[in-house]
Design brief:
Blueprint: H1 3-13, H2 25-28, E1 35-40, H3 49-72, E2 76-82, H4 86-96, E3 101-106, E4 109-110, H5 115-123, E5 138-142, H6 143-152, E6 160-167, E7 173-178, H7 183-189, E8 198-202, E9 209-211, H8 216-219, E10 228-233, H9 237-243, H10 246-256, H11 262-265, H12 278-285, H13 306-311, H14 318-331, E11 355-356, H15 357-364, H16 367-370, E12 375-379, E13 384-388, E14 398-399, E15 406-407, E16 412-415, E17 425-426, E18 431-436, E19 440-445
Parallel strand pairs: 1-2, 1-5, 2-3, 6-10, 7-12
Antiparallel strand pairs: 4-11, 6-7, 8-9, 8-10, 13-19, 14-16, 15-18, 16-17, 18-19
Bound molecules: iron/sulfur cluster (2 copies).
């Protein structure tokens, strides 16, 4: 399949980056690159979704990697996994024997799956601040995205994904879930909550989004980028950190930030050579959320959470403060104008300052969940799905079905708006469209 046909298939199937913000894959791969990296590192503690996918679909991932390499003109293809995935490593090693592909086995550290960190680790090069892997001749693709591309090559759209359901559920599992399934169905399929009134996290414990309204499990649905559903006891350390008010963050920063710079010294972005020192943002925050000198570098924060949840001895909130500054600057249409050069003296520091996932789990108070190995769960068959039209970076898809219409699984229900960056959306079950609003399409099975 030539490059333009592959990109068209990827676009038609609605493939987006499944490991991050859901960037439309047909745009991402419309570029030349020397190296393509299949990212199977899944660095968030407690998540097993990519592991399960690699156990079941390694051949498809390899085939898609080769197709993407051909499309972008890459000579080098690397499959990056954790060294601890011994069975998966052996499987890939057998599959790539005789092919021009490499297998990289990384230590179990956080955030190994961050594409800036991964490129630095594998290629010894640093993507510039606010840059992309292609700035250093690379393309990074999550293994889930590659699996979707393999299916797209057969004209099968993205309608399902693997989701780890863990934490305070009775039977943690990795489930195959139709897009648009209510999170409460995933939890019910795992035996329900194991504690009263738990709090929900969508994603992993480091970068996941807390949804703590009582009806959140009913309202929240699985999207193309949902890798995990985590239940924690309400009031857990992570919940307290995520819900601290801005006023309390400011009071604590003013009273307790000792400018020790541990947040900077362990920051993965600082340690690959970005001119970013988050302790200076903390200092600026003492004066409020204005555009104080030093605060603009908050734009360089990936919000990985290392500073806030691991490094800071005073348990302050540098990650959330960076996020607040970024949001405020965007509101005020203030852009980053700081240095974009890589600082050579910093660019290799990550190699010596890796954060072992086991240590991280102790700090996060999630140790007791770390030894859970979710079982392989069922493929869910929900009676109804509510499929968001915005599951990706760019513009929301425009619904192209009406209430009362019957759809088959895989039918197009949301189209990319003319001339905009976006991704198509497809029906994840067969049935009748019962509701269409600006944000979603609801389908009743049958
Ligand atoms: S680690 Fe904490 S106390 Fe130290 S400089 Fe950073 S925010 Fe301040
Ligand atoms: S969240 Fe903290 S550690 Fe992570 S990139 Fe931002 S400042 Fe650095």
């Amino acid at each position: 399949m030539d490059a333009s046909s592959l990109l068209q298939r990827i676009r038609d199937a609605g493939v987006v980056g499944q490991g991050g913000a859901g960037f439309p894959a047909h745009v991402k791969f419309a570029a030349a690159a020397e190296t393509v990296i299949a990212n199977g590192c899944e660095c968030e503690p407690l998540l097993f979704s990519d592991q399960r996918l690699m156990q079941q679909h390694a051949p498809e991932i390899v085939e898609a990697l080769e197709a993407v390499m051909a499309a972008v003109g890459a000579r080098r293809g690397i499959i990056a996994i954790k060294r601890k995935y011994t069975d998966i490593g052996e499987r890939f090693a057998r599959l790539i024997a005789g092919r021009p592909l490499e297998l990289a086995r990384l230590e179990n550290f956080y955030p190994a799956g961050d594409e800036h960190v991964l490129v630095n680790e594998l290629l010894g090069r640093t993507i510039p601040p606010l840059g992309l892997p292609r700035d250093v001749g690379a393309v990074v693709s999550n293994v889930g995205t590659l699996f979707s591309i393999r299916r797209a090559m057969e004209a099968i759209p993205v309608t399902r994904r693997w989701v780890t359901v863990t934490g305070e559920v009775r039977r943690p599992a990795v489930l195959e879930v139709p897009i648009g399934t209510a999170v409460e169905e995933c939890i019910a399929a795992c035996g329900g909550p194991a504690v009263p009134d738990p709090v929900l996290v969508l994603g992993g414990p480091m970068m996941g989004r807390f949804a703590d309204a009582p009806d959140a499990p009913r309202r929240e649905v699985v999207t193309k980028t949902t890798g995990g559903v985590l239940l924690l006891p309400r009031g857990h350390f992570l919940h307290r950190m995520a819900t601290l008010s801005v006023r309390d963050m400011q009071k604590q920063a003013a009273a307790a930030c000792i400018q020790c710079r541990y947040c900077t010294d362990l920051c993965p972005r600082h340690n690959i050579g970005h001119s970013f020192e988050t302790h200076r943002v903390m200092r600026a925050f003492g004066g409020g959320l204005g555009a104080a000198p030093g605060a603009l570098q908050a734009f360089l924060c990936s919000e990985c959470g290392v500073c806030e949840l691991f490094a800071c001895p005073m348990r302050l909130s540098p990650r959330r403060i960076n996020a607040l500054f970024k949001a405020r600057f965007r509101e005020q249409q203030i852009a980053y104008e700081g240095p974009r050069e890589v600082v050579p003296a910093q660019s290799g520091l990550n190699r010596h300052r890796k954060i072992p996932v086991a240590r991280l789990a102790i700090k996060l108070d999630i140790w007791k969940y770390l030894e859970i190995h979710p079982v392989e769960g069922e493929a869910l068959q929900p009676a109804q799905v509510t499929i968001p039209l915005q599951q990706h970076a760019g513009a929301a898809a425009v619904a192209c079905v009406q209430p009362g219409e019957r759809v088959t699984e895989g039918a197009l229900i949301g189209e990319i708006p003319e001339g905009k960056l976006g991704a198509r959306v497809h029906a994840s079950i067969a049935g009748e469209v019962t509701r269409v609003d600006g944000g979603s399409v609801t389908i009743q099975r049958g």
